[in-house]
Design goal:
This protein is mainly β. 4% of the residues lie in helices and 43% in strands. Catalyzes the isomerization of 5-dehydro-4-deoxy-D-glucuronate to 3-deoxy-D-glycero-2,5-hexodiulosonate.
């Protein structure tokens, strides 16, 4: 098979506060997302979100079912969101061929049986995806950057001037519970999601990219009064439970993809934490 998905179990916040550095990395960090001619990732018990990467190099890669799903095909009871972080490529969805440019998104709904990812004609095909359980079927749809709902927040003075592109949100495309978007920091800005927040109604996953090899991001997580951090490199992802903040600061500007699944679809549902209250 060309698909390999690990299972990661949920953690209690009181247990998390006692984890050493290596255990935090093992439970929450996804280091090697892009493996040649493979679909790789993690099946998280946090709202049963699957997070991973797709990297066809010299042959097509099919979205096959996995043992965790106990289903005849991957999307029998699931939806999937895909964002292209590499070269222009083609994806076949039940016989329909869809071209996806860099930083464009594709939503594929419940019930689609055959999905195949093709190598790019030039450059690397690098596709990041999130998949969540789905209760009904919505149509496949490509979302360009022009289709996205765009918000610019922060300031250079506070090192967090950024543009948020809401790609797979209910104001742009109909989904069951999955939401995804992309945040690009302006040159000179390094902080994301500041002020920090939590939302007990849904978990989140972050994927960092557009980082040069010599640069890193320190991603902060944990309860607001008891935080920890994970040092992350380009093309790595992190799982954030509903009780955890999800914020970061890098040694340069960068781009990250956020994905959410859980109780509601309200993007603005955030329990804000003042920076002075963080511990």
């Amino acid at each position: 098979m060309s698909i390999s998905i690990q299972t990661r179990y949920s953690s209690h916040p009181e247990d998390f506060s006692n984890y050493p550095t290596q255990e935090i990395r093992e439970k929450f960090l996804l280091e090697d997302i892009f493996v040649p001619n493979q679909i790789t990732g993690v099946y998280s018990m946090e709202d049963r979100l699957i997070v991973g990467g797709i990297h066809p190099v010299d042959q097509p890669v099919a979205l096959e079912t996995i043992d965790q799903l106990k289903a005849p095909y991957f999307l029998e009871r699931r939806e999937i969101g895909i964002i292209n972080v590499g070269a222009k490529c083609t994806i076949d969805v039940d016989g329909e061929s869809i071209s996806l440019e860099r930083k464009e998104a594709l939503y594929i709904g419940k019930g689609v049986q055959q999905v195949t990812f093709h190598p790019a004609a030039e450059g690397d095909t690098l596709l990041y995806f999130n998949s969540a359980p789905a209760h009904c079927a919505y149509p496949t749809r490509k979302i360009s950057q022009e289709d996205a709902e765009v918000v610019t927040l922060g300031s250079l003075e506070n090192s967090n001037h950024r543009t948020i592109r809401k790609l797979l949100v209910n104001s742009v495309v109909k989904t069951c519970q999955l939401q995804m978007g992309m945040t690009e920091l302006k040159p000179g800005s390094v902080w994301n999601t500041m002020p920090a927040h939590v939302h007990d109604r849904r978990m989140e996953a972050y994927f960092y990219f557009d980082l040069k090899d010599e640069n890193v991001v320190s991603h902060f997580m944990g309860q607001p009064d008891n935080t920890r951090h994970i040092w992350m490199k380009n093309h790595q992802a992190v799982i954030s439970p509903a009780w955890s903040i999800h914020s970061g600061a890098g040694t340069s500007n960068y781009t990250f993809i956020w994905g959410m699944a859980g109780e509601n679809m309200d993007y603005g549902d955030m329990d804000m934490v003042k920076p002075s209250e963080l511990r």
